[in-house]
Amino acid sequence: MNGMDLAHPAEEVAPELLGAVLTHQTPEGTVSITITETEAYSGTADPASHAYRGRTPRNAVMFGPAGHLYVYRSHGLHWCANIVTGRDGIASAVLIRAGRVVEGEDLARTRRGTKVESPRLARGPGNFCQALGIRAEHNGTDLLAGASVTLSEGEPVPAALVRVGPRVGVSKAHDWQHRFYLADDPTVSAYRLSPRAKPPTGA
Questions:
Q1: Which secondary-structure segment (H or E) carries 125?
Q2: pLDDT per residue over 168-178, tens digit each?
């Protein structure tokens, strides 16, 4: 990806991915989505990360190399897409939480539902993957190698528009300021504290 180095910790890459574009080319057509919300997960140092307890067959993609897609099923219902970051061998990934459809809106709406409003087409990680057509078979895809799913630079996002906050819906390390999103953007998902979240130690 021109001008963007993904081989850095997730919390550094996550804000830089705002404004970048994920594109999926399929026989049905092409959908492109500009990323408006991300969350960083720092591997074995992060209690909320799938890689916290080490490498498994499920999370192996998270350990690199950077630029690959890590796809997993959430609560048995939705596919979620992460962009692997960091140095090879060290787990690190950025969850794509929301975006704005900039190409192929009709196809995205066919996948999401004909009555879904434009800002809601890719709002939330499960909806993002559904609109883009991302499923289990895309796990491990090299986003920079010209595959059917690619990552490219979009328009630069002014730093003044980037907001930072706690991650959504996780029960562990929920107060970490690892969520990055565009201010006042209607495609960004609402913040939700997990009912299983516990107050920080000493609080």
A1: helix 125-132
A2: 988 888 889 99
Which amino acid belongs to residue 107? L
Cα distances (angstroms) measured from residue 198 to each of 61, 170, 186: 29, 10, 29
The dihedrals phi and psi of 17, each to the nearest 5 degrees, come to -80, -15
- Name the pTM for this structure: 0.92
d(CA 161, CA 182): 6
Q: Angle CA(70)–CA(16)–CA(29) in degrees, nearest 5?
A: 55
Q: What is the pLDDT of residue 3?
A: 58
174 in Cβ contact with 48 (< 8 Å) = yes
| 84, 142 contact by CB (below 8 A) | no
- For residue 38, report the phi and psi dihedrals to the nearest 5 degrees: -140, 165
What is the rounded (10 degree) CA torsion for 22, 156, 164, 49? 30
